[in-house]
Amino acid sequence: MRTPKAGRTGRKLIAGFCLVLSCAGGCVAKSHIYDGEALVKGRKLAVLPGVGAPGPDGQNAGVMQAGVLITELANLQRYHVTGPGHLRKELADRTQPVGPALASEAAGKLRIDLLVLPEVTDYRFTKGSTSAWFLVDSTNKTTSKYWVTVRVLIVHPDSGKLVYSGTGSADSDKGYGPAVLEATAKCTAELRKFLADAPSGRG
Amino acid sequence: MGNKPTRTQAAALITAAICLAGCAGPKPTVFDQAGIDAVHKLLVVPLDAPQTPAAGVIATSLAAERLQYERYGNLTVFVAPAMWRLRAGASGAMSDDQAAALARQTGADAVLTGKTGFAVVVAKQPKLPGSEIKAMKYTERFAVRSGAGAVHVRILAAQDARTIYAHNASAKGIDNARILAEAVTNALKPLETYLRKSRK
């Protein structure tokens, strides 16, 4: 007969096994800092247009995500954060393809230290239901849940070398808005923590 | 007559079989070890995704992040000019020669390119008479939406645009964020396994 202790040990083993399997399946860190020095020294960030999620709901989510991210980064009170407008204007007159040389020149002219690339990878809703029984009848209520996953990459404008990457997921019963705000806060949480501990680069 | 295996033993055997089958995985179409050994700087250009351009950009950054995060020896990964996003339609298909030329411009030894696709599938409930729908469980009346993604990754040597690695993978599920991540991870798996062993 199985003792309660053996049952607990078995559950722990199964949990551990599942964890190992999920990691072996290929997990990418939620957030990671590749070049802390660039984050400390950088002054001006340019947020490029976000990429919307594949699928029918999220095609325009990237534009909104870029706006939310601009606010989120500006709230760090560390960087001068701009949208893509100046860069777009700078590149509009150029006919040559956007290669490393042109990217470096444009970033240098606008004094952009780092580029921020927002992406929305999941943007969908699911329907669920709840049932309640009364004495003589039952009632069904439909509920919606909104799921959002966003990613942000920060790269050097000239070389494209990775500086920071973050991923955040959230869901909400109220709508896409709260889920996007929460997911964006999560994907920049590691950056916020790093900058809070790091010395100011403006010394 | 031999002893029957217990449930635990049977479960262990099935798990081992699944793991062995999963870990071995399909072999890549092209795998040039000597070519891969010579790569120290890898440029990642946007994967071509004619039907869902967003999937191409996302798969590109997932691949770059995946390879950079693991920090294989002295392999450095660069994301190709991010400012491409400012020019609508400029991130479309790139020929092998163009990709290799861009890699040479940036000083990279090789360039990662490829194709990706993503589709959303809605499994609608069949048109049943009202009485049968009423008899169904309430939660089963909704349409179920799922996604499927496929990624084909190629790595070209910068010098001569020769393919040194090619592999493809696909994934499906409900969570869109995981589908492309899983496909990219599986498409890079043989490469990563080799890099892990050769660049300790």
Most extensive interface, residues per chain? A-B, 57 and 50 residues
Share of residues in strands of chain B:
15-25%
Mean pLDDT across every amino acid position of chain A? 82
Sheet/helix structural class of chain A: alpha/beta
Low-confidence spans of chain B: 17-24
Distance between the termini of chain B: 50 Å
Q: What is the number of E strands of chain B? A: 6
CATH topology of chain A: Rossmann fold
Word description of this protein:
The complex is a heterodimer of chains A (203) and B (200). Chain A has 203 residues and is of the alpha/beta class. Chain A has one domain: Rossmann fold (3-Layer(aba) Sandwich), CATH 3.40.50.10610. Chain A is 39% helix and 29% strand. Chain A is built from seven helices and six strands. A six-stranded mixed β-sheet of chain A has the order 1-6-5-4-2-3, with helices on both faces. In chain A, helix 3 (61-74) crosses helix 6 (176-187). The termini of chain A are far apart. In chain A, 36% of the residues are buried. Chain B has 200 residues and is of the alpha/beta class. Chain B has a domain at 26-116 and 150-169 and 177-198: Rossmann fold. In chain B, 40% of the residues lie in helices and 24% in strands. Chain B has six helices and six strands, in the order αβαβαβαβαββα. Chain B has helices spanning 7-24, 33-37, 53-70, 96-105, 130-135, 176-198; strands at residues 30-31, 41-44, 76-79, 110-123, 144-157, 163-173. In chain B, helix 3 links the parallel strand 2 and strand 3 (76-79). In chain B, helix 3 (53-70) runs parallel beside helix 6. The longest helix of chain B has 23 residues, at 176-198. Chain B is elongated and about 70 Å long. The chains are: A alpha/beta (203), B alpha/beta (200).
